[in-house]
Amino acid sequence: MNFHYPNGRRYIPKQSKGLPTKADKQLSYSNRGMTLEDDLNETNLFYLEQKLAVIHKKPTPVQIVQVDYPKRSAAVIREAYFKQASTTDYNGVYKGKYIDFEAKETRHKTSFPLKNFHEHQIHHMETVLLHGGICFIIIRFSATEEVYLLPANHLIAFWNRMNSGGRKSITKQEIAECSHPIKLGFRPRIDYIKVIDYLYNLTGEKGIQLQ
Amino acid sequence: MNFHYPNGRRYIPKQSKGLPTKADKQLSYSNRGMTLEDDLNETNLFYLEQKLAVIHKKPTPVQIVQVDYPKRSAAVIREAYFKQASTTDYNGVYKGKYIDFEAKETRHKTSFPLKNFHEHQIHHMETVLLHGGICFIIIRFSATEEVYLLPANHLIAFWNRMNSGGRKSITKQEIAECSHPIKLGFRPRIDYIKVIDYLYNLTGEKGIQLQ
Can you tell me which residues bind Mg(2+) (chains A, B) (predicted)? Predict the structure, then answer.
């Protein structure tokens, strides 16, 4: 819990003027140990509880090879391998529209490397757009804690540029131009629905026509 | 490959008049060893290839406990458990609309037991409907190879009847009244999109307003 003086300044305990205390660390977002995935899961739970949207992360795809069935207890998977996802990680419904996105974070400071995606994920995004779905990526720069929503059509353009021999990443400048910053909050942590409302003109509408 | 005489009768090889041959077995749908899941996966692949819809089965949710990282080879999951799914198995986008469904088969002949579903799946379906998504179940009676599409609002009503002390299953008669039969085909095998077009008046439209 944070205390505030009547003047609105944050209360800083005296001992923290030397080495940072545990309380100081908790004040900083980066030290909370929350990943982008954690934040999005909490955001989606908030949307669900508030009846704003139904968006879930898909389970990690696993190729199961061997399963044991011990007596009187649950089946145990004894050999399995991670499979490459053929789609994006998150999807669901908002105001009747299909929502589909991928979330990635990077430690890079000046650009976002495109190797974070696979060819078939880009292809999936193209297909979703073709069918009138809302598709985007959420990017977090972990060093600066900046979060952006980049519509899939822009990502696809950067991907095609790379495939034509261009650069293998998106510069920070390009992200600033093509994407929308998402301010970090408390509840929800990453309020991407607000950006969707703005981008696709859904404010106050229920299932408005996008095409 | 099946041969047909000019009169349209199916060619039956002579030796098959005794014990059934392998070819005979292949003629029967039930003996193909295809599950409802196989059929739906092929159907969804067909829809994807034909650019009709983007609908995928979600991966089986697994709780991973222990992973080995052998040198020079892929990570091996050594201990994991099946988790109960919190949503339905299939979702995606068709004509801009969010599609969400669960598929179940039963060996019962006269009714469909509601124990095939979990409370939270029913709750998920209610939520999807609330947000303007298209939600239903696909039921197969394996003994008779009949396949039905039952809109989620009916399933929810039967579920509530059970929770109020009513019967724990849906009778075949009720299914005939509330659902839509899906004729089995070759490509696609279970053409449920046709039923959606009909039920939600989407024929010839792209992303038509449902609310």
Answer: 87, 89, 102, 121
